[in-house]
Design brief:
2 domains; 2,3-Dihydroxybiphenyl 1,2-Dioxygenase, domain 1; alpha+beta; 298 residues; 18% helix
């Protein structure tokens, strides 16, 4: 059995593409790379051609997420693995593959309808160093940890767990959170590399595919500058600065121009070798602006 090794890229559908240009650069520090098509642009975090594609759309949600496998042989084995498991998928056309700037591409949906892609060999522009959209003290944590993590909608936690397990991710429940209605949420967190998790799901009440995207800085000062910039621009902060129990990163959650959340963070933590779960965070993460799907007392 082969498995994916990182969450390598995302596609985002947005209704205000110009607001995203300003937000991605000044608030986060991402680099814009232009496309030859007017309805999109790319965002860089490192030397890869891109990590995020932003599409002009009539909706605000995640369009797809891309999972990387090591190479051609692993790509071929993954196709057979999906076929043997009876998972509907298709190998992308050469034009679709070229559009993603990879050498091989599989398209499929998870049990909740979120578009997933599996690929190998992304284009790496070693002649084009990452140039942040605003001055930064460091860079983003990427490399073999991928671009970050996402919290997505789940219509069936067991089916979702089995799907992503088939792709090679592993993990389980990490929080038991008391909800305002008396229920207990038990979100699942799954990983495929040294990043504590690359995907999470299992919070009730989600309508859109994406609740939040997490990006991590290598330098604490860059997190502080982002926090100050977002505050000065009057952007909603859904959860204040705090430190998580599971990945022990220092983070905060704020609104993107699309209405879902961006979690920006900093820290360095080695995940435990055996499973643990938690009832709350170490400190902070108080709810400030409600209505973003994270009105949680953790």
């Amino acid at each position: 059995m082969v498995g994916v090794i990182e969450l390598g890229y995302l596609g985002l559908n947005v209704t205000d593409i110009n607001a995203w240009r300003e937000y991605a650069t000044s608030c986060i520090g991402l680099e814009i790379a232009e496309s030859d098509q007017d309805d999109r642009f790319y965002l860089r975090m490192d030397q890869q051609h891109h990590r995020i594609t932003v599409f002009q759309s009539d909706q605000d949600d995640m369009a797809y997420m891309g999972w990387r496998v090591k190479g051609l042989e692993e790509f071929k084995t993954m196709i057979q693995q999906l076929t043997d498991a009876g998972v509907e998928h298709r190998v992308a056309t050469p034009e679709e593959t070229q559009e993603r700037h990879v050498l091989g591409l599989i398209k499929l949906n998870d049990p909740s309808g979120t578009a997933n892609e599996i690929y190998y060999s992304p284009q790496v522009d070693v002649m084009k160093p990452f140039h942040p959209g605003r001055p930064m003290y460091g860079k983003f944590v990427t490399g073999d940890q991928g671009l970050g993590h996402v919290l997505i909608r789940s219509d069936d936690n067991e089916a979702m767990y089995n799907f992503y397990k088939l792709l090679g991710l592993f993990g389980s429940i990490e929080y038991r959170i008391d909800m305002p209605d008396g229920a207990v949420a038990q979100p699942l967190f799954m990983s495929c590399n040294d990043r504590q998790h690359s995907i999470a799901f299992g919070l009730p009440g989600m309508v859109e595919r994406l609740n939040h995207l997490h990006l991590q800085y290598t330098e604490f000062d860059d997190l502080g500058i982002s926090h100050e910039t977002i505050r000065n621009k009057g952007i909603d902060v859904a959860m204040q600065l705090g430190k998580h129990a599971n990945d022990q990163l220092y983070t905060f959650y704020s609104a993107t121009p699309s209405g879902w959340l961006m979690e920006l963070g900093w820290g360095n933590y080695m995940k435990p070798e055996a499973q643990e779960h938690y009832k709350g965070d170490i400190f902070g993460h108080a709810v400030e602006a409600s209505g973003y799907g994270l009105d949680l007392d953790i």
